[in-house]
Amino acid sequence: MKRAGILNRHLAGALAELGHGHGVLVCDAGMPIPKGPRVVDLAFRAGVPSFAEVLEGLLAELVVEGATAASEVRGANPAAAGLLTGHFPGLVLVPHEQLKDLSAQAHLVVRTGEARPYANVLLRCGVFF
User: Fold this and answer.
1) Yes or no: is domain 9-125 CATH 3.40.1650.10?
2) Domain map (residue ranges) of the chain
3) Catalytic amino acids?
4) pLDDT tens digits, residue range 52-98?
5) CA dist., res. 13 & res. 39, Å (int)
């Protein structure tokens, strides 16, 4: 049994399969999930687990070289916008419709229980060396 880190076996296994350049969409409960990417659905109840909790857990285990979010997050969800810009100074903002299109190219989708709008980010995996 793992001692620490992500304990969910489906998520831990999916993370172990990621490579350089792979996309990981971390999304709220309302984001449409495209056909194609592997999905790990962590949503339990509205708000549980939160976008922030899941993102923090993922960032503790992943090397991320870039991130893209919806430009609408700034006005509709200042808390998520602050979280994202705090973690990703070079955050790329695109219209929400474009983020939905880009998410179809993700290797993995991690759905949270977040119930606030535009709490979505597409991470681009880097390498540790």
Assistant:
1) yes
2) 9-125
3) 20
4) 999 999 999 999 999 999 999 999 999 999 999 999 999 999 999 99
5) 12
